[in-house]
Specification:
Number of domains of chain A: 1
Largest interface: A-B, 100 and 99 residues
Order of helices and strands of chain A: HHHHH
Number of domains of chain B: 2
Radius of gyration of chain B: 18 Å
Oligomer: heterodimer
Helix content of chain A: over 70%
Number of helices of chain B: 5
Strand content of chain B: under 5%
Structural class of chain A: mainly alpha
Distance between the termini of chain B: 40 Å
Strand content of chain A: under 5%
Structural class of chain B: mainly alpha
Largest sheet of chain A: none
Number of strands of chain A: 0
Distance between the termini of chain A: 39 Å
Number of strands of chain B: 0
Radius of gyration of chain A: 16 Å
Largest sheet of chain B: none
């Protein structure tokens, strides 16, 4: 694995956090392209790193929201449990699709997100 | 309606695993439009639901040998702090303008990602594919 400097990790974290806070988009949509295009990670390593970063950032966000009483636990379980099943399928699938193809599919998704952000 | 929420939940998980995103892009609309939560509740509930999804995804990626734990933890910690600044900036910046700029930036990034992917596909090599696949 190419070693990433601490300064790069800090910039990645700050950029991800600011954009996700500003636009309400998830951090992964900002972080994965930065890891691929700037640091040179392939899609699998970018996705892996992004998922762990999301665990930390989402935990901080969710803790705040729990205190404010905005979280619906039953609804969280209703979508969260099926999503845990889905992520097992998604990560399994990702190991079997060429990284370049995953990257191409990601760019298609980004176009969709750009449209959503523009017209939200 | 519960069935639809479950189906969208699975789809969000698949996207999360495939692309390394949280899946909020599908979870928030599912919570708001299908389960009837208001916008703030939907965003907050999505954040909680994402934690086990991303954790399981990261754990699977670790066992596939793709996870750099130090990078993930460091980026996540700084992102958590910066997200507070991002939320605060919403009240200061001309958000309409910034939103369009962000959409254009995303289109540019999509183009960069796609062209680098197509270059790799044309070259036919996939050096990152694990041994034996």
């Amino acid at each position: 694995m190419p070693s990433t400097r601490i300064s790069q990790l800090v910039v990645l974290g700050l950029a991800t956090g600011i954009f996700s806070g500003l636009f309400g988009v998830g951090g992964g949509i900002v972080l994965v392209p930065l890891l691929v295009l700037w640091i040179g990670f392939d899609e699998r390593r970018a996705a892996a790193t992004s998922l762990l970063a999301i665990v930390i950032a989402a935990s901080a966000g969710a803790a705040t929201q729990l205190i404010y009483g905005n979280v619906d636990l039953v609804a969280a379980l209703t979508v969260g449990i099926p999503a845990v099943g889905g992520v097992l399928i998604g990560t399994w699938l990702q190991q079997r699709i060429p990284v370049a193809m995953v990257q191409l599919l990601f760019s298609v998704m980004l176009v969709g997100v750009a449209v959503l952000v523009a017209f939200q | 309606m519960i069935a639809l929420a479950i189906i969208i939940g699975v789809a969000a998980g698949v996207l999360s695993g495939l692309f390394g995103i949280g899946g909020g892009i599908l979870l928030v609309p599912a919570l708001a439009l299908v389960l009837g939560l208001d916008h703030v509740e939907a965003e907050a509930t999505s954040l909680l639901a994402i934690i086990p999804v991303a954790a399981v995804g990261a754990w699977r990626q670790k066992s596939y040998g793709n996870l750099d734990v130090r990078s993930g933890l460091t980026i996540g910690a700084f992102a958590a702090v910066a997200a507070v600044a991002g939320v605060a900036l919403v009240n200061v910046l001309p958000v309409e303008l910034v939103r369009y700029a962000f959409a254009v930036l995303m289109l540019y990034v999509a183009w960069r990602m796609a062209s680098s992917a197509i270059k790799q596909l044309r070259a036919g090599a996939d050096p990152a594919l694990p041994d034996g696949q």
